[in-house]
Hints:
Its main location: other. It comes from Epilithonimonas ginsengisoli. By secondary structure, the chain is an alpha/beta fold. It has a single domain (24-169), classed as 3-Layer(aba) Sandwich (Glutaredoxin). The chain has seven helices and seven strands. The protein has helices spanning 2-15, 31-35, 48-54, 70-85, 100-109, 127-131, 160-169; strands at residues 37-39, 45-47, 59-65, 89-95, 116-119, 139-143, 149-154. The strands form two sheets. A five-stranded mixed β-sheet has the order 5-4-3-6-7, covered by helices on one side. A two-stranded antiparallel ribbon has the order 1-2. A hairpin with a 5-residue loop joins strand 1 and strand 2 (45-47). Residues 7-16 have low confidence and may be disordered.
Amino acid sequence: MKRILIYLLVMVFQFGFSQEVPKVLKTKFSKEALAQKLQDKDGKEISINQILKQHKGKVVILDFWAGWCRDCLKAFPKAKELEEKNPNVNFVFLSLERSKDGFLKSLEKHEMTDKENYWFSSGWKNDFNNYIDLNWIPRYIVVDQRADIAKYYAITPDDPEIQNTIDKLLK
C-alpha cells in the first residue's frame, strides 16, 4: 500500500505540473498585453510594445526563461544553436526571476549580459503573460516583421516549427 501511495505521488508530480497547449493559438497581441511594462538590467521600464517597435521589420524570438528553471537551463545550448543558425533574427529574452537581484545574478551566472534581456518586475501573473497563456517556462514565441505572432506556442528551442516559421518569414 505504501508503494502505491508513493507511486501515485510521483505520478502527480511528474505529470501533474506541465505545460498545457493553449486552447486558442493567438496571432496578435492585445493592447493590454502590449502595454505590459518590464525592466532592463539598469532598471529602466519599457513596454512590450516599445520592445517590438525597436525590432520593427525583423523576425523576433521571445524566449521566456529564469535562472531557477532547470528546463530553461537545459534548453540554453539548443537556444544558442538556434540563435547562431539565424543571424537575421532578433532574440529577446524575457526573465521570470523572482527578484531584481536574482535577475542580475542570473544574467551574470548564465553569461546573458550581452543579450537583450528584460525582467517582469510585476511577477509571473501580469497582462502579457496572462494573455499568452504562460503556464510554464521555457516558452518561445516567434513574432513576424509586423509584430504579429507567427508561432504562438513552442516549449523547446529545437521545435522544428520554430525554424520552419523563421524560414517562411525570411523568404
